[in-house]
């Protein structure tokens, strides 16, 4: 879809990484627009780089004719992030008739567990075994909810009984309707690492722009409670993301990191045209041998990139400007626009 040559606006939903995205857009000379819930206006009005705000009661209103009209009138490119993916169904995202940065069709592959596994396998990534039935649980497993839940509600199970106990709690809390809403995956022992990439179809280059780990409550706090008290209190961990912590990897691991990212880009091109333009993240665990097992991917910007507003130890190797992921997106839009190749980077 070719955009008009009229000046473009970079737009996004007010949540997740919107500050970084709009700051980066402003640094690259764009007009910026935020679709913002009224209850959150107080936060976003603090920042001078937000040029225009569409006030809504709920972010779902981005699908409304009125909102889409304003986005069209401002010649907006919508930058998708985790909130768009978690609050809207794949059908709804695919129907948005505003140009979306990246590949909106691949967001369905992020949201659907079996498509997700298919793409990771096609990319040749090592992935955790998925366990089809609670009767097949014979080692430590992590039980997950579908969709981008940010780790909320995840729990550990090691046999049928522990699975059922955890499921019952979620059903009682009305988080899920039945055990069928759960997905069981082999638990990989090691350290979780999130690899933040950007792929440019304009240059054909894959860039590693940052690495982080998540700070999750309360699994990351449980280590502060001594073993005796943990046992006494029958502590059950949860994996709710609260923030992100910067990380650099051993340099000897970086070559493999680039290869995994490139394999993912090629696999996406084969399975979900037009592939993986823009930001994405491979999410996994390094075990004690330094082997990476990928348990998830995000096919759009992740919130862990918020760490690197002024650039990261990896973006600094590629750019002299402080290059956040948000700014990198805006720069891609700028270059594509100048070259008349906007259709290569948006869907
Ligand atoms: P996710 O929302 O899927 O990115 O996962 C949230 C958190 O759960 C991660 O940051 C990890 O701490 C943990 N996790 C998810 N999958 C696995 C796995 N297969 N093995 C070990 N830990 C996992």
Set down the secondary structure blueprint.
Layout: E1 9-13, H1 18-27, E2 31-37, H2 41-44, E3 52-56, H3 65-73, E4 76-78, H4 82-87, H5 90-95, H6 106-111, H7 113-122, E5 130-131, E6 141-145, E7 155-157, H8 160-172, E8 182-186, E9 191-200, E10 205-218, H9 227-233, E11 239-246, H10 254-271, E12 278-286, E13 292-298, H11 325-339
Parallel strand pairs: 1-2, 1-4, 2-3
Antiparallel strand pairs: 5-8, 6-7, 6-8, 9-10, 9-12, 10-11, 12-13
Bound molecules: adenosine monophosphate.
Q: Would you give an account of this structure?
A:
This protein has 347 residues and is an alpha+beta fold. The protein has 3 domains: 9-102 and 339-344, Rossmann fold, CATH 3.40.50; 111-126 and 189-319, ATP-grasp fold, B domain (D-amino Acid Aminotransferase, Chain A, domain 1), CATH 3.30.470; 130-186, ATP-grasp fold, A domain (Dna Ligase, domain 1), CATH 3.30.1490.20. The protein has 11 helices and 13 strands. It has helices at residues 18-27, 41-44, 65-73, 82-87, 90-95, 106-111, 113-122, 160-172, 227-233, 254-271, 325-339, and strands at residues 9-13, 31-37, 52-56, 76-78, 130-131, 141-145, 155-157, 182-186, 191-200, 205-218, 239-246, 278-286, 292-298. The strands form 3 sheets. It has a 5-stranded antiparallel beta sheet with strand order 11-10-9-12-13. It has a 4-stranded parallel beta sheet with strand order 3-2-1-4. Strands 5-8-6-7 form a 4-stranded antiparallel beta sheet, with helices on one face. Helix 1 (18-27) packs across helix 11. The longest helix is centred in the last third of the chain and has 18 residues, at 254-271. The protein is globular and about 60 Å long. The structure holds adenosine monophosphate. Residues 128, 142, 151, 154, 185, 187-188, 192, 214, 216, 239, 283, 285, 295-296 line the site of adenosine monophosphate.
